[in-house]
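Service request form, structural biology core

Requester: graduate student, group of Dr. S.
Request type: structure prediction, single chain
Budget code: on file
Notes: please return the result as structure tokens.

Sequence provided:
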Amino acid sequence: MEIRKIRNEALFIFSQAIFVALSGHAQQQAKPAAPATQQPSGTGQPAAEGPAKVVLKVGDHSYTQADMEFLIHTLDPQLQQVVASQGPKPLGEQYATMAVLSQQAEKDKLDSSKEFGQQMALHRLQALAQAEYEKLAENIKLSPEEINQYYTAHASDFDQAQVREFIIRKRSEDANEGDPGLPPLEAKARAEEIRKALTEGIDPKEVAEKFSAANTVMADAEPRSIRRRQLVAALDKAAFELKEGEVSEPLETPQALAFLQVVGHSRPELKDVSTDIENSLHQEKLQLAVDGLKSQTTIWMDEVYFKPPAGVAGSTPPADKP
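Core staff response, request fulfilled:
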């Protein structure tokens, strides 16, 4: 039963992917004819550069090996791996199902409905936007000098702190006795006990072993590395301002008390963060390219229609009546 369930779920995923792929396939066919090496024929007719191998027939329609390879190419890498491991037959079965439904829809003239036309127009809009976005992304080139300059100007942004974090979960006043967490006063007392033990130099591993309690006290026996702005503001500030061995003041929230012990600080070398910098700069330039296109195009929006609901940031409160 479990194997059948997994197979059914896989086929469902295939069917969803094929729905998307078929819409792209239909858009390809709507364009002027091109060699089979660039787009699938979907009609079984020979390609301009030689005969196409037909691998599937559904009614009067034939589908070639190029059609199937195009479809597989449109799948995400994970699904491509599934096809590679299971073989293309499940994909072909689902493709045949889609083709049968598509042919019947044409007989029922569903493709002439207004809703279908709107759906296809939206698919085309999305596909073209994605194609242009990818083209812009491919055209962005970054030099080693740009990456080095960014690292020099933002070196502190890559600073790392090695910390041990401690969290004491609180229990609301009206909670049942068996609920996880400690009453607020007990939680504060437990936090102070742990902080006192750490500041007195007791081995953090012993502290973690002594005070850890499932669903109540979470204590890091080993330090972990964090970057700036990875924790909430108060703990982030403490992590990069406190000296080695110092313990922060507890940060209290309605659900818990949290504090940390600083173990050390470090700054990675350029070679260790160059990929992160390249990705960040690439995204910045890509956004600038998109913004540049928008700035060159007249865009008008009906402010009344696009007005945010009352109470949402950016909405204008109603004017007082005289």
